[in-house]
Design brief:
Layout lengths: L11 H4 L3 H8 L4 E2 L3 E2 L21 H4 L5 H4 L7 E2 L3 E3 L4 E4 L5 E6 L4 E5 L4 E4 L2 E11 L5 E2 L6 E8 L11 E10 L4 H9 L6 E2 L17 E6 L10 E6 L3 E3 L1 H11 L16 E3 L3
Parallel strand pairs: 3-10, 4-17, 12-15, 12-16
Antiparallel strand pairs: 1-2, 5-8, 6-7, 6-13, 7-9, 8-9, 9-11, 11-12, 14-15, 14-17
Bound molecules: zinc ion.
Length: about 280
């Protein structure tokens, strides 16, 4: 899947770029990282990544489809600071449904993909799990502090592709340094060779991620990987897990170093630290 990150020739459809035109053409595509376009359509010279010519500051220049990476005003990740406290939406994690279907590895990310049946319900909105992946270090900061690892569970929002919007919902989980984490270890143990896909074992149990306390930071953002599409409803859990230094070292090897986009301007957005119940 490494070639899927490359700059591609631009079709007329792609020049329509954002909004409904983009969404209509992306239904059913797999996601890379936080939601990038996995469509293989030929290859150009520069792959997006996290260093050198493909580094985040250059993403918008790599492909017209990545316009939002430079021009978007509600981009992710951000520093979660200056938040107001409030009740927010009640959260329900119904992660006992479909088993993981597969794990793939493209040299930047391992994605565990799920069959339908795992739901994250925020207020009245029912979101279906698509995939989960890890970033090293964390993409979001909390009051200026970064963390060794951040896990993202990417969900299809009901207003998503096919309904006129991209519409993703992402739950973020931050990991502090400490004891090893069984979910992170399942990623490490299950990774297939680069560019390959393997059946994901039962060890990838989403239910293990359900927090005891649903308090979370809520804001409107984007995917943190190209094409940096908005809107994405973000729910970064306040409750943290731990990851061991050995696990972090192994993830950095697998990710080829850093796979985290720097924080983006908050702009006119508000962040709410919500109770979630
Ligand atoms: Zn992500």
């Amino acid at each position: 899947m490494a070639e899927t990150r490359r700059n591609r020739p631009v079709s007329r459809r792609r020049l329509l770029a954002t909004g409904a035109a983009l969404a209509a053409g992306t239904a059913g595509l797999a996601l890379t990282g936080c939601g990038g376009d996995d469509e293989a359509e030929g290859a150009g010279p520069v792959a997006w990544g996290y260093e050198g010519a493909g580094a985040p500051a250059r993403w918008a220049s790599l492909d017209p489809q990545f316009y939002n990476c430079g021009a978007g005003r509600h981009q992710s990740p951000i520093d979660l600071t200056g938040y107001a406290e409030g009740p927010g939406e009640a959260l329900a994690f119904d992660y006992g449904g479909g088993a993981p279907e597969a794990i793939d590895y493209d040299g930047l990310f391992m994605h565990v993909r799920y069959a339908p049946g795992n739901l994250f319900i925020a207020g009245e909105v029912v979101n279906e799990v698509l995939q989960a992946h890890l970033h090293t270090p964390s993409e979001h900061l909390v009051d200026g502090d970064a963390f060794p690892v951040e896990l993202h569970v990417v969900h299809q929002h009901p207003d998503g592709p096919g309904a006129g919007l991209w519409g993703y919902t992402v739950v973020g989980v931050l990991f502090e340094s400490g004891e090893p984490d069984p979910v992170v270890q399942a990623f490490i143990d299950g990774v297939p060779p680069r560019g390959a896909e393997a059946a994901a074992g039962p060890a990838f149990d989403l239910a293990a991620l359900v927090p005891a306390d649903p308090a979370h930071y809520r804001y409107d953002g984007s995917t943190t990987t190209p094409p940096c599409v908005e809107p994405v409803d973000w729910y970064v859990l306040r409750e943290r897990r731990t990851v061991s230094p050995e696990q972090v070292d192994r993830l950095r090897e697998l990710h080829g170093g850093v796979n985290a986009r720097p924080v983006q301007p908050l702009g006119d957005r508000r962040i709410v630290l919500a109770r979630g119940r």
